[in-house]
């Protein structure tokens, strides 16, 4: 019981540390979010003022931007990714599983904030007419957790590998296809009054499998690194 409590305290402390570093540096939201907003702005400039077309393709483009820039956010180098900080955390008795879970939680919070920051921009630019908003609200945390888990797994796999900045996105993007597909299809289901639950289940399973893989391989990848 005490071991479980200790692991929970480690996760909470590491999440607080990572979010405090983000507040101080603004590496994720103050750098990635503006570029995401600019990317959303490029499509209306390319297709002109064709409002029906913008309403049709806008939601899918929003999720594509979330995926691509979210990958950049999750695979970025954090302050504890180097061999020195990782060795220090190991000497302090920090469980690799707790460190992996803390990264997932912290990145999920940042990804959720990133999505919420981009959503008003997408609404203003594309003026989507989508009913069934409660189902769409479930998509935001599912995408955040799924991408965060994939990013943590890719970061652990590519730790210490030359060209890690390139390898990380190459690992995450193909595995994130179910999240992108599910998010866009939930929107289509809402448009045509179809049940969104199969796509929500797909996204939930994708995120759960990524989270399980991250947890189950954390110790082995830490030792290998």
UniProtKB/TrEMBL annotation:
Membrane spanning stretches: 28-48, 60-79, 100-126, 132-154, 166-187, 199-221
A Pfam family annotated for this UniProt entry: CcmB
Superkingdom of the source species: Bacteria
Biological process, per Gene Ontology: cytochrome complex assembly
Main location: membrane
Name the record gives this protein: ABC transporter permease
One Gene Ontology MF term: heme transmembrane transporter activity
Subcellular location: Membrane
Family per record: Belongs to the CcmB/CycW/HelB family.
Keyword Cytoplasm: no
Gene Ontology cellular-component terms listed: membrane
Keywords: Membrane, Transmembrane, Transmembrane helix
Membrane protein topology class: Multi-pass membrane protein
């Amino acid at each position: 019981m005490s071991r479980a409590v200790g692991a929970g305290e480690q996760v909470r402390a590491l999440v607080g540390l990572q979010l405090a570093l983000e507040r101080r540096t603004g590496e994720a939201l103050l750098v990635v979010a503006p570029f995401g907003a600019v990317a959303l702005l490029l499509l209306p400039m390319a297709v002109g003022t064709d409002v029906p077309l913008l309403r049709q393709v806008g939601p899918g483009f929003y999720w594509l931007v979330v995926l691509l820039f979210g990958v950049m956010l999750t695979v970025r180098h954090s302050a504890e990714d180097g061999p020195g900080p990782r060795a220090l955390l190991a000497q302090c008795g920090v469980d690799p599983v707790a460190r992996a879970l803390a990264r997932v939680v912290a990145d999920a919070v940042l990804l959720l904030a990133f999505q919420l920051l981009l959503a008003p921009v997408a609404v203003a630019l594309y003026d989507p007419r989508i009913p069934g908003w409660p189902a769409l609200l479930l998509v935001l945390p599912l995408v955040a957790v799924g991408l965060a888990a994939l990013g943590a797994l890719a970061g652990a796999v590519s730790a210490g590998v030359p060209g890690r900045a390139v390898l990380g996105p190459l690992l995450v993007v193909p595995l994130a296809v179910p999240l992108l597909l599910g998010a866009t299809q939930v929107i289509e289901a809402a448009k045509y009054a179809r049940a969104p639950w199969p796509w929500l289940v797909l996204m939930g399973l994708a995120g759960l499998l990524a989270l399980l893989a991250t947890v189950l391989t954390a110790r082995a990848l830490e030792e290998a690194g």
